[in-house]
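Sequence design from tokenized structure. All designs in this work follow the same two-part layout: the structure record, then the generated sequence. An example of the structure record is given first.
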């Protein structure tokens, strides 16, 4: 197990260094929480009565997630799988159904994670998390699309990032588009200043427009921001929607934000 973790970590360092990204691995300046969270996995059956994902596949994504949360000494363990017989919840049609699922199945003192086949109202992300859900674990939860997480296991870490209060790096719903020079980084984009502005628009063609066809994780987008500056995003940041193979971690400020949300929620855990 230890050897496996070192290998995963080594692989991450290698791919991150390849692209010259400044993402964090271990840093003494980060808080260390020594906290293990229990995950309750809710797995619906599909219309053929098959489970949407198996235990080994969930465990593999959790193992990956544990690598990325280790810099702040947080771990996740799978405590139970709850099989949901109602195949309707394999593809929740709207937020009402999402709320129903949580009301019916959630348990306290757990991070409740559902594994539907698809979420039609979330076309681009690999799942859906209630933002800062960690603060209200009885009410809030996470959904991760099973086919997505099987092929892109880091998507679980991405959704967990949302549950710990992080926004997508390309986010512009709250404060508008972040400028390349970072002058509005506290109030625009993902509201985090050590994640460079990310111009990706969900649904846009990725390969050929944002990323090189030849070297997948090489950013080639030629659009500029309102100050005519070219974008230089970290395509390796966990909170992007760039391919899983490019993703290699969170930044220091993202870790600090997650730590802050946890501190505010500690009473619930
Ligand atoms: Zn996201």
């Amino acid at each position: 197990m230890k050897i496996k973790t070192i290998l995963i970590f080594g692989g991450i360092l290698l791919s991150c260094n390849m692209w010259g990204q400044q993402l964090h691995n271990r840093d003494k300046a980060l808080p260390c929480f020594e906290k293990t969270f229990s995950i309750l996995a809710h797995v619906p059956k599909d219309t053929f009565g098959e489970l949407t994902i198996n235990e080994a596949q969930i465990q593999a994504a959790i193992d990956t997630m544990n690598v990325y949360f280790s810099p702040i000494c947080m771990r996740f363990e799978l405590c139970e799988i709850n099989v949901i017989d109602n195949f309707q919840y394999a593809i929740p049609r709207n937020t009402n159904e999402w709320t129903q699922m949580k009301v019916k199945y959630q348990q306290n003192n757990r991070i409740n994670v559902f594994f539907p086949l698809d979420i039609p109202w979330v076309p681009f992300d690999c799942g859906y998390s209630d933002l800062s859900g960690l603060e209200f674990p009885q009410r809030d939860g996470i959904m991760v699309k099973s086919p997505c997480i099987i092929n892109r296991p880091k998507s679980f870490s991405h959704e967990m990032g949302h549950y710990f209060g992080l926004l997508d790096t390309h986010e512009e719903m709250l404060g508008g588009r972040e400028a390349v020079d970072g002058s509005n980084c506290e109030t625009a984009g993902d509201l985090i200043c050590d994640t460079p502005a990310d111009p990706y628009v969900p649904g846009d063609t990725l390969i050929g427009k944002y990323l090189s066809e030849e070297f997948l994780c090489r950013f080639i987008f030629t659009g500029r921001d309102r100050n005519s500056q070219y974008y230089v995003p970290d395509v390796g940041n966990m909170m992007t929607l760039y391919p899983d193979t490019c993703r290699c971690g969170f930044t220091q400020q993202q870790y600090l934000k997650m730590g802050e949300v946890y501190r505010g929620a500690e009473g619930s855990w």
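Residues 1-15, 17-21 have pLDDT under 50 and may be disordered. We note this feature because it recurs in several other targets discussed in the main text.
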